[in-house]
Amino acid sequence: MFWDMIPRKRFAALLAIACTGLAAAGCSSSSAPRDPNASSKPSGPVSLADASSLSYLNDHVVSSAFTAAAGYTLQTTANSSGTLEADIAAHEISPNVFEAVGGDNITPLEPQFTKWYIQYAGTSMVLAYNPDSKYASQFNAIKNGTRPLSSLFTLLQTPGLKLGRTDPNTDPQGRDFIFMLQLAQKYYHLPSDTVSKILGTSDAGSASSPEIYAESSLDSTLESGQLDAASAFVTQAVEQHLDYIPLPANINLGSASLAAYYKANSAVTVKSGTKHGSPQVIDITIIGTPTPAALAFVKYTLSSAGLAEYKDGGFSMITPTVFGSGVPAAITSELGT
Questions:
Q1: Beta pairing partners, 5
Q2: Using an 8 Å Cβ cutoff, are 137 and 331 in contact?
Q3: Within 10 A of 260 (CB to CB), how many other CB atoms are there?
Q4: Residue 41's pLDDT band (boundaries 50, 70, 90)?
Q5: Which CATH class is domain 125-276?
Q6: Could you tell me which of 190, 196, 193 has the C-alpha nearest to residue 211?
Q7: What does DSSP say about strands 45-51 and 73-79: parallel, antiparallel, or unpaired?
């Protein structure tokens, strides 16, 4: 009996010690002050397909600010708007959100992938150039006004000058560059073969020109010195600190009030049909079923903080406008509608 009691006493003692420790731990936990900075934000990724001209802003500015504000992380796939549209339609990529230059890259996805999009910012065309180019002094003279801007289009015809642009069949910027040249030809009363001489072809919609580069690599190719000049949106030039020549509203596709003028005086036939010049706007939509992360990203983009980032990046601010139907209430509430 005595030996039987020893294990029981030891067990009871150990049990008492354990209970005392647990009680102390419980008291310590319950009495510890809560961290006022503890975050209750959600986490997880949102997948964004964005036009390459938007990738610098999204990757270097928006991504970290969005995560700090909403908790979610941003995963981006950048390419020309037309290529992204085709990849989404072919189910090769499945982003939560799509940001394109121009609503005409979103409407072909309706109604299978989305039924709406929102325009929220604008941009315009410029001519970027390499400051170490042998033509830099001439570009600088045009930029500072000591040479007329109309002389730019003669300079771009110079044999040996290396010009870069993007594919007009897949990239809005590629078409915009051609529209800009057509508008300039009319506005400055230039010879009728000006556009074809600058493009190096009478077929403006051709994708085989040696001038054509992928949008994602065009800026870096210019900066490396392989090109003397390249097409660009002003926003790219501002964000990446490129040297560039601003262009007047009559030819830069940046004025909403000149929409009819752009359309009437510029056109190019590409694989998908004939396209006309129009003011350049940035559009956003959700692809497929809205996820909490996708809703959070669109709301952040359209918030005052998100729009301020676009303004700082050189974009022009326009009143966000809904096209289509079925926009989630969480997003329309951000628009105040």
A1: none
A2: no
A3: 9
A4: confident
A5: alpha beta
A6: 196
A7: parallel
